């Protein structure tokens, strides 16, 4: 969410009515999240000036660990230098730390491609936005889910119930520090996640939604202490009943 919001902001800066705007003091502390969108808190160090040049050799974009040769345009400006400076700073301050984590395994190669392409400045901001939008579409639609055996049939479902909230086993990347709370596309995906975790014996699908509209599921090591909840469904592994009838 943070990275997608950032690239949308950089897309606007690259195509603003004032021209391409560069953030000269590009640091994480210069941004805040407001209603799920990233905002710049300080525009004092923003500039529309692009580096003047006479030849391509005048247009090297230097960073502490990398340098990029750019073209000198016909009007004597280093072509796209503001856009590329913003994008590489987004890569080194945000993408590097956020993109490799917490995505479903099937989407990680696509995020790795974005990471590598922006780190080498092979992508401009237009290509970066399109790549993020593609990943978001796959994530929201569930198209990233690979065909696999149907596992939900191995679970008993109880509508209108949930377990008593409490501390349970933890997983990564959980929305709760007290247990294992993950976003899912469907109960079938939740069943696959539960089967992949040795501690998991049940999971609860709630009406809570993430920013993408995906429901949250709580994965638990037991299914005792059920209480009524009209907005939840608890799924229990058939094998955990040890032959007892629910």
TrEMBL record:
Kinase is among the record's keywords: yes
Pfam families: PIP49_C
One GO MF term: non-membrane spanning protein tyrosine kinase activity
Keyword set, alphabetical order: Kinase, Signal, Transferase
UniProt entry tagged with the keyword Phosphoprotein: no
Single GO biological process annotation from the record: skeletal system development
PANTHER family linked to this entry: PROTEIN KINASE DOMAIN-CONTAINING PROTEIN
Annotated protein name in UniProt: PKDCC kinase
Domain FAM69 protein-kinase: 2-116
Any one annotated GO CC term: extracellular region
